[in-house]
Design a protein that fits this description.
The chain is mainly beta. The protein has 2 helices and 10 strands; from the N terminus they run H-H-E-E-E-E-E-E-E-E-E-E.
Length: about 200
C-alpha cells in the first residue's frame, strides 16, 4: 500500500509541475490500471446521521467542540463603532462533522452576511486551528487556541492588536460566544451571541 500511495503521489507531483509524462508514457489498458481504494465517507453526514459522526481515529480533543454539533437559534449582538451602539439580529447556526469525522464545520446565516468556519485540532501543535470564511464581501482569517478552564479560547494577532474569541457557558443544549479586541492592554467586546439548540 505504501508503495502504491508513493506512486500516486509521484504522478500528482508530475502534473503539478507541468510535466507531460502522464500523457506520453502512460498505458491506459485495463490490465495496466490499479484502482484507488474507495473514498472513506463513513463518518460524513447521512440520512441516519444528519450532522456526521466523530471518527474514532480523530484526535480525542476533537470532542471539545462537540457542543456545537447540531442546529441552533442564536441571538447575536454586534457593536458598531461608527454608530456607537449595539445592533441585535436573529441568526441560525449549524455545525457538523466533516473530512470524514476529523474536523467540524459550522455555517452561519445572518441578515447581513453568511460565514463558515472549519475547525481542526492539530495533535502536533496541540492547538485548534480555526479557518474563517465570509461573503458580502469575501474575507478569511485563522485563529488558534484551545481549552482554557471551562472555556474554549482562540486568538489571532495582527500588529499590536489581538483578536480573542471565547466560547463560554457551554452546555448540551446551549452556549455563548464573544469576540474581543485587545490593544495596549485595553479589551473591547464587539460581538457576542447566545445559541439554543433547535435539533
Amino acid at each position: 500500500m505504501k508503495k502504491f500511495l508513493s506512486s500516486i503521489a509521484s504522478i500528482i507531483l508530475v502534473f503539478t509541475t507541468g510535466n507531460t509524462f502522464a500523457q506520453s508514457n502512460s498505458n491506459t489498458k485495463a490490465d495496466n490500471l490499479q484502482t484507488i481504494p474507495p473514498v472513506p465517507v463513513n463518518y460524513e453526514s447521512s440520512p441516519a446521521y444528519p450532522f456526521g459522526r466523530l471518527n474514532p481515529k480523530a484526535p480525542p480533543e476533537t470532542k471539545q467542540l462537540e457542543f456545537m454539533i447540531g442546529e441552533f437559534d442564536c441571538d447575536d449582538r454586534i457593536y458598531s463603532a461608527r454608530d456607537k451602539k449595539w445592533f441585535r439580529m436573529d441568526v441560525v447556526r449549524k455545525a457538523e462533522y466533516v473530512l470524514n469525522g476529523f474536523a467540524i464545520q459550522d455555517k452561519n446565516w445572518t441578515p447581513i452576511l453568511n460565514s463558515s468556519n472549519i475547525r481542526v485540532y492539530d495533535s502536533k501543535t496541540k492547538q485548534w486551528h480555526i479557518t474563517y470564511f465570509r461573503t458580502q464581501p469575501y474575507s478569511s482569517a485563522v485563529w488558534k487556541g484551545g481549552k482554557e478552564g471551562e472555556n474554549m479560547v482562540f486568538r489571532q494577532t495582527t500588529g499590536k492588536t489581538e483578536s480573542r474569541l471565547t466560547f463560554y457557558d457551554i452546555s448540551k443544549n446551549s452556549y455563548s460566544w464573544k469576540a474581543e479586541s485587545i490593544t495596549d492592554g485595553k479589551t473591547t467586546m464587539n460581538w457576542q451571541f447566545t445559541c439554543k439548540r433547535r435539533r
